[in-house]
Please model this.
Amino acid sequence: MSSSFFIKTFGCQMNERDSEIIAQSLQQHDYVEALDMDSADLIVLNTCSIRAKAEQKVMSLLGYLRKNKKRNPKLKICVAGCVAQQEGKALIERMPHVNLVVGTQHINQIPALIANTDKHSQVATELKTDYQIPRFIPETETHDNWEAPQFSGGKRPFSKFVTIMQGCNNYCTYCVVPHTRGREVSRMFKDIVDEVKVLVESGVQDITLLGQNVNSYGLTNQVSDDGSACSFPQLLKKVSQVPNLKRLRFTTSNPKDLSHDLMRCFRDLPNLCPQFHLPVQSGSDKVLKRMNRKYTMEKYIQLVQDLREYCPEIILTTDIIVGFPGETEDDFQKTMELLEIVRFDGSFSFKYSDRPGTSSVKLAGKVDEEEKSRRLRLFQNRQNEICLDQNNKHIGRIYEVMVESGSAGKYQCRSITNHIVHIEAPSIFEPGSLISVKIHHAGHHSLQGKVL
Ligand code: 5AD
Ligand code: SF4
Model:
């Protein structure tokens, strides 16, 4: 009888895509997906360590799973992803009920490694410096083909992530990513385009290209067989021309590498959705310098102005860290001022937390937790008001939205601007259907529409 697996994914879209790859490799080795965690023979936690809170969530679930293991000693527990990469063997020492710890560059090996855990726990976390992102369609079974062919199906079969690069070379001082995901490596240009073609031919309509900093795609390694250069805007253009691709998106970008070529894509490529996530992190030049972000506030504001000139309807979102070491009240107020100048359509905001191995751990001027919470509250309250103002502007507009979930009566859909749009309709719409709606109500985080 085949064994069953359950994957719990924490963190970013990169992890969501990795979890699909893990699921697929397990299915190729005769595992079947369990309906829930409690009935699985193998539990895989695909983890995130970007902030302390994300890691705490993983640790508390792992602690809880001790009970499952007692109940069922044959249960296998695998920790994959960034916490696995960061902790390595230490994780098994702290959590002896864990069978396997697999780092970010070894997820394709889970089926083979788990088979060897009957007597001993296993750890695979070596980050290879000469790491090559493999070809899309694996030529042999033996190499690290963890950029496996895509899953057809999944929870959102009409919408897929395509990883275009791994790792990051920027070393922002607070960020654990360069330590957990290794050096930046771009995938071959042709492999990405081929993968998108296959997906679209199988019915996918909405593609999001993924990388830690897509703007530096193709800068650190060869991405074509003949060695010719290929930038991210060139890749976007090529992907956007894939016949029948309805919606193209990408994430995420570091403002320091944002070129006018990329901005022009929003004006020129009809299926590139008018939404842009451009993490700013802080409104203070002093803090940005201590974060090693390599741009100033003035430069960021100029980028936003240019972007809005190319594409006036663009929806702009950002990430903010409050309470970075050395951030004074005056620095924080500069972030609040930035909010008034840019008026983001949405933002993800976080209290700074020390991450293992990052250089900001050693910076002086740590801000206490209470003060960080106060700043976060102030920021989020104001951002929420701005979100509502921005969302109100969509009232009366007509959008083609894609149905994501729901059943006759109520549906949750997504617009090209990436807004969640709730609709009420007696008709039956399959997930992935495109329907025209008129927006009649706006909330802080979603819109409501009437089917036309
Ligand atoms: N503390 C708080 N927030 C962080 N982020 C990354 N590292 C940290 C940290 N140490 C936030 C940044 C980044 C987002 C993915 O997570 O805002 O853009
Ligand atoms: Fe982290 Fe900076 Fe790289 Fe983003 S660009 S992943 S914040 S090091």
